[in-house]
Fold:
Amino acid sequence: MSSLTPSSSTQADNDFDVVIIGSGFGGSVSALRLAEKGWRVAVLEQGRRLTTEDFKRAGKSANALSWMPALGMKGFFAQEVYQHVAILRGIAVGGGSIVYGAVSLEPKDAFYQDPAWNQLNSNWREELAPHFAAARKMLGITDNPYRGIQDEWLQLAAEKVGAGDSFGSVPQSIYFGDPAEKEQDPFFDGNGPMRKGCTQCGRCYTGCEFGAKNSLDKNYLYFAEQKGVQVVPEHQVTHISTLADGGYQINLQHSFTHDALKPLRAAKVIVAAGALGTQELLFASRDRYKTLPNVSAALGRRVRTNSEALVGILAKDSSVDVTHGASISTHYYPDDKTHVTQNRLPPSYGPMKFYMMPMIDGTKPLPRALKTLLAFVLKPAHGIGAYFSKNWYKRTTYLTVMQQADNEMAFSYGRTLLRGFRYGLKSKLSKGGRTPSYLPQANQAARAFAAVSNGIPQNMVVESVGNMSVTAHVLGGAVMADSPEGGVINTQHEVFGHPGLYVMDGSSIPANVGVNPSLTITAMAERFASLFPAKTSE
Structure:
């Protein structure tokens, strides 16, 4: 665990000018850009700083990968289950960039024109354009140049559903250089870390042990630390308190032992703990500890999941190996609101075979659940027999199917049975119908892929039996608005009623992105930092 060295030259009794909570896309961008403007910055991260050995173990072992501290698992991939949704996220220095597939897509026009926020700016596309450009440069985005058998099958499946013209390689934050040896940084005129090209190992989701993925520790965080930013792992923030003379106190405990740590003081605080972490921290500060009393009642509202579903296809041929390539490499659009990508799985995802059930259609949850359970027994090749499949992860393709749809959910806060009566978030339904647990386009995409690959299409049990949506792309909950009645922060990302307190992560985005949101969050963070003033001389 790293130790903090509070600055001796900050104002008054503050330890730092700015404390950032979270080291994902929002936090890392903010850290670098504010340090460039002269602010003395610390970044607090509840996860660990990971090593190449951590990634090697996580690629093979589910225990090494999983974040379940209560069970002694100190990995970096968390699976959070609520009443209406299951959410996947990364917890480590570098946040979600450690476990994401590095897909870096700009959203379509519907995102910029979404009624959830188009009244806040006459032209979001125009305003965000230079920030998307800055994000693309920093993240080193290029089209994936490789194709494997899984990509060939996805192209055939796209053609089968009449969407062949939309098929193509995904733009990715990956270095596709020489995989044989390390070489000088190719992105920042040699000033960044040494790099090695992608080996096509199919393990982007468990951290890149070869250093090819452009995760945040290779760009924003790397340069932030060069600028003097202190990035401190294994520090969990319990709540934020206002100080009588202005500024904030950040109350801390050790992430694994839960021992209280010395609080920090800062003139400004940026909450960038991810959509879940940020909501929980603001709820705890307002409702449990009563230290941020003015946080808007809109907290927890307008949460989105990209309206996605995950479907699987198990190849019948036990000798098939689809794992050669990046975790994601190609995609297509079956219609103007739906996006499909393929996914390769690492060995440590093996236990996910027990998540899979026979594919059943149906908009009514109970009949669908009963039909699924019946098919599980009556069609063993599609159900229980799949659990004993040889080389399951090598034969399995997951499709992520996302939609630009107007539906939302919400979170409240309190003691909950799912958390053993500890305090935590609780999901609830909101406008536009619940986030989908059944997506017809997803089942259609899976069946088309199964037809061209001689495979078995499957649904996830939490969707088809549990009637829960599954997402790795949760957004909203502390959204931008023009008043505290509509959201938690203003268009400069400052929390209504708490000057100097900001939110900059996926929780601030009120509109449905419709594609993998990492690039959008990065661009929004670039915009936020551009509006943040430079530090004046003391």
In short: The chain is about 25% helix and 25% strand. The chain has a mean pLDDT of 94.
